[in-house]
Write a structure and sequence with these properties.
Layout: H1 8-15, E1 21-24, E2 31-35, H2 40-59, H3 62-78, H4 80-91, H5 100-116, E3 122-127, E4 130-138, E5 141-145, H6 151-164, E6 168-172, H7 178-188, E7 197-199, H8 204-211, E8 218-222, H9 225-234, E9 241-245, E10 250-254, H10 260-272, E11 282-288, H11 289-304, H12 324-339, E12 343-346, E13 362-365, H13 372-375, E14 382-388, H14 391-399, E15 403-404, E16 406-410, H15 414-422, E17 428-431, E18 446-447, E19 450-451, H16 456-461, E20 464-470
Parallel strand pairs: 5-6, 5-8, 6-7, 8-9, 10-11, 10-16, 11-14, 13-14, 16-17
Antiparallel strand pairs: 1-2, 3-4, 4-20, 9-19, 12-13, 15-18
Helix pairs in contact: 1-4, 1-7, 2-8, 3-5, 4-5, 4-7, 5-6, 10-11
The chain binds nicotinamide-adenine-dinucleotide.
C-alpha cells in the first residue's frame, strides 16, 4: 500500500510499526508513533543489500546521481511541512525560529549544493613526459551513525556527499529520534533505486553492529566523543575510514571594541540555537570587564523576547530538552554554577511538576572559569559568561579544553578579530557570528572534537578513496 508522504498522517503511516517501540513528544509526553527497532540481523541484511546495489549506482554517470539528489530535494520540499511536524513532535523543537522548518529546508539545500559540486581530477604532474592525476573513487558502503539534536540535517550531511560519490549508505539514527530519520529516508527513497540508501533504527548495539561490520568501508559518525572513541577502536579490524564529528565546548570571545547591543541577538542565537542542543553552539562566552555589564544586560533583554514552549505552537522559538538524560545534565551543571557562587541573571529555576523536559533559558554571570558549567558540555539552554581583564588570558582559557569544534570572536575591527581568530584552537572560527554553517564551507573538529571534514569539495573527498593514475 503506498501512502501520501506529503501529509503528516501519510508520512507517519509509512514508518509507524504498531509492534514497535513507543516514541513520545518531549514537550508533552504524548505518544507520537512507534518505531521499528532493528536488530543485528537487520544491519547484516541492509549492508549485504548495499554491497549488491553499490556497483550499479557507482557506474551511473555522476550527472545522473546529481539529478537524483536534486529530485530528492524536490521530494523533501513536497513533504516539507509533514517532515517538520514529525521532527517538531519527536525532537521537541519548535516549527519556527532556527528549528524544525529550518532543519528540513537545510536538508533540501544540502542535497542541492552537493548535486552542484564538481570534483575535477587533480593534475599532479604534467611535464617532461611525466603525467600523474589524482581522481576520487567511491569507497563502497558508508555506515552513517547520527545523534538526536539535528537528526534529519546531520543525516543529510552524511548521505548527500556519499551518494553523490557513488557509495551506498546504511543509516543508523539515534534511538531518541528514529522516526524523523525514517521519515526523511522514506521521502528520499521515493526517487532512489532500491537498496542504495537504507535505514536501520536501534540502540548503540545496533550502531556498533554497523560500525564493526567488515563490509562497511567508511563510517560517518556524529555524536559524543566517548562513542567516537569506541568506533575508532572497532574500525581497526577492517581499517574502515572514519569521519568523526564529536562533542564541543565552543568559546566566544567579545573584544573591547564590540557593540553589545548590536551583537546581542547573534550572540543569543549562537548559544541558544535549537535550545542550546547544537554541537557547534557557543557554550561559554568571554567578555572584557569594560563591557561585561552591558553584554550581560543586552543578552538578558534578548532572552526575554524568545518564547519557549511546545513545538507545534507557532509562537515558540525555544523548546524542551529532547530527553531526560540531557535535561539532567543541564540541571546538574546550573546547580554547580549556583553552588560555585555564580549569579543567575535569568532562568535557572525549572518549574516543579511541569510536563515535558523544559529547562528555562538560563544566563549565568560572575562564574569561575573552572566551574563545571564552563568546562563541561552543557548541550542545553544555559550560557555561562566569564569576565576577563587580559585578552591573552581569555585566549588561553578558550584553548585549554580538550575539545575544539567551533569558536567565535566578536568585535568592530576585522583585522584585530582575525588576529585573535588565528590564535584559537578549533576547526571553525566565526567572526561576529557563531555556528553559521554553509554547505560550500568545510566543517570539522580538532582535538577531541574529532577529525575529518564535512561539506564542500573536501567533504566529497572524505567519502571517496584517492586514486593516482600516472603515465
Ligand atoms: P551518542 O554518542 O550517545 O550517540 C550517537 C549515536 O551513536 C547514536 O545513534 C547511538 O545509538 C550510537 N552509538 C552509541 N554507542 C555506539 C557504539 N558503540 N557504536 C556505534 N554507534 C553507537 O551522542 P548523542 O548523545 O546522540 O549526541 C550528542 C553529542 O553529539 C554531543 O556531544 C554533541 O556535541 C555531539 N554532536 C556533534 C556534532 C558535530 O558535528 N561535531 C553534531 C551534533 C552532535
Amino acid at each position: 500500500m503506498s501512502t501520501d508522504l506529503t501529509t503528516y498522517d501519510g508520512l507517519l503511516a509509512a514508518i509507524n510499526d504498531p509492534a514497535g517501540r513507543e516514541i513520545t513528544d518531549p514537550a508533552t509526553g504524548d505518544v507520537i508513533g512507534r518505531t521499528h527497532e532493528g536488530t543485528v540481523a537487520d544491519i547484516d541484511a541492509a549492508v549485504s543489500a548495499a554491497v549488491a546495489a553499490q556497483p550499479a549506482w557507482a557506474s551511473r554517470p555522476v550527472a545522473e546521481r546529481n539529478d537524483l539528489l536534486n529530485k530528492a530535494a524536490d521530494a523533501i520540499e513536497a513533504s516539507a511541512e509533514a517532515l517538520a511536524q514529525l521532527l517538531s513532535r519527536e525532537a521537541g523543537k519548535p516549527l519556527n525560529g532556527p528549528n524544525a522548518r529550518f532543519e528540513v529546508g537545510a536538508c533540501a539545500a544540502w542535497l542541492r549544493a552537493n548535486a552542484a559540486f564538481v570534483l575535477e581530477p587533480e593534475v599532479l604532474v604534467d611535464e617532461d613526459g611525466t603525467h600523474a592525476e589524482l581522481v576520487y573513487d567511491p569507497v563502497g558502503v558508508v555506515g552513517a551513525v547520527g545523534p538526536w539534536n539535528w537528526p534529519m540535517m546531520i543525516t543529510v550531511w552524511q548521505l548527500a556527499p556519499a551518494l553523490k560519490m557513488g557509495n551506498a549508505v546504511v543509516v543508523k539514527p539515534s534511538e531518541y529520534t528514529p522516526l524523523s530519520v525514517q521519515g526523511l529516508i522514506a521521502v528520499i527513497n521515493q526517487v532512489l533505486p532500491a537498496d542504495v540508501l537504507s535505514v536501520v533504527a536501534g540502540d548503540g548495539a545496533v550502531g556498533a553492529a554497523l560500525t564493526d561490520h567488515d563490509d562497511v568501508d567508511k563510517i560517518m559518525f556524529t555524536g559524543s566523543t566517548k562513542t567516537g572513541q569506541a568506533i575508532m577502536r572497532s574500525a581497526a579490524d577492517n581499517l574502515a575510514r572514519l569521519t568523526l564529528e564529536l562533542g564541543g565546548n565552543d568559546a566566544g570571545i567579545v573584544l573591547e571594541d564590540a557593540d553589545p547591543k548590536a551583537i546581542a541577538t547573534d550572540l543569543f542565537w549562537g548559544a541558544f540555537i535549537n535550545t542550546g542542543q547544537t554541537c557547534a553552539a557557543m557554550k561559554r562566552l568571554y567578555v572584557p570587564e569594560s563591557l561585561y555589564q552591558e553584554v550581560c544586560d543586552a543578552l538578558v533583554e534578548v532572552a526575554a523576547q524568545m518564547p519557549m514552549g511546545v513545538g507545534l505552537d507557532e509562537n515558540n522559538v525555544l523548546g524542551p530538552l529532547q530527553n531526560k538524560q540531557q535535561y539532567d545534565i543541564v540541571a546538574r551543571l546550573v546547580q554547580a554554577a549556583k553552588d560555585g557562587g555564580a549569579t543567575v541573571l535569568v532562568g535557572g529555576d525549572p518549574q516543579e511538576g511541569q510536563s515535558g523536559y523544559f529547562y528555562p533559558t538560563t544566563i549565568v554571570a560572575d562564574i569561575d572559569n573552572d566551574n563545571p558549567l564552563v568546562v563541561e558540555e552543557q548541550f542545553g539552554p544555559a550560557l555561562p559568561i566569564i569576565k576577563y581583564t587580559d585578552l591573552d588570558q581569555a585566549i588561553t582559557w578558550a584553548n585549554e579544553l580538550e575539545v575544539g569544534l567551533g569558536s567565535s570572536v566578536w568585535g568592530s575591527d576585522l583585522d584585530e578579530a582575525k588576529r585573535v581568530a588565528a590564535r584559537l584552537e578549533a576547526g571553525s572560527t566565526w567572526i561576529n557570528k557563531h555556528g553559521a554553517i554553509d554547505p560550500r564551507v568545510p566543517f570539522g573538529g580538532v582535538k577531541k572534537s574529532g577529525y575529518g571534514l564535512e561539506f564542500g569539495l573536501e567533504g566529497l573527498k572524505q567519502v571517496s578513496v584517492p586514486h593516482v593514475i600516472s603515465w
